[in-house]
C-alpha cells in the first residue's frame, strides 16, 4: 500500500503549484479590475456625458431638473 502513495507525491505538488498560480492570477485580476488610468477615466467620463446628452434632451440645453 505504501507504493500507492509514493507515486502520487509529485502529482500533488503540481496540483498545489497550479492552485497557487491560479490563485495569484485571480487575485491580481480582481485587484486590477477597478483601477483606471487617468486617460481611461477621462475618456469614460466624456463618453458618459455624451451618452447622457443624447438620451436626455434637457441635459442638451443645460437645464437642471
Alpha carbon gyration radius: 26 Å
- Low-pLDDT residue spans: none
Instruction: Tell me roughly what share of residues is in helical segments.
Output: over 70%
- Largest sheet, if any? none
Please report which band the strand proportion falls in: under 5%, 5-15%, 15-25%, 25-35%, 35-45% or over 45%: under 5%
What string gives the helices and strands in order? HHHH
What is the oligomer described by this structure? single chain
Per DSSP, the total helix count is 4
Number of strands: 0
Instruction: State the separation between the terminal residues, measured CA to CA.
Output: 78 Å
Q: Average pLDDT value?
A: 80
Shape: rod-shaped
* Structural class category: mainly alpha
SSE topology:
Blueprint lengths: L1 H5 L2 H24 L5 H18 L1 H5 L4
Structure description:
The chain has helices at 2-6, 9-32, 38-55, 57-61. It is built from four helices and no strands. It has 65 residues and is mainly alpha-helical. The model has no long low-confidence stretch (mean pLDDT 80). It is 80% helix and 0% strand.
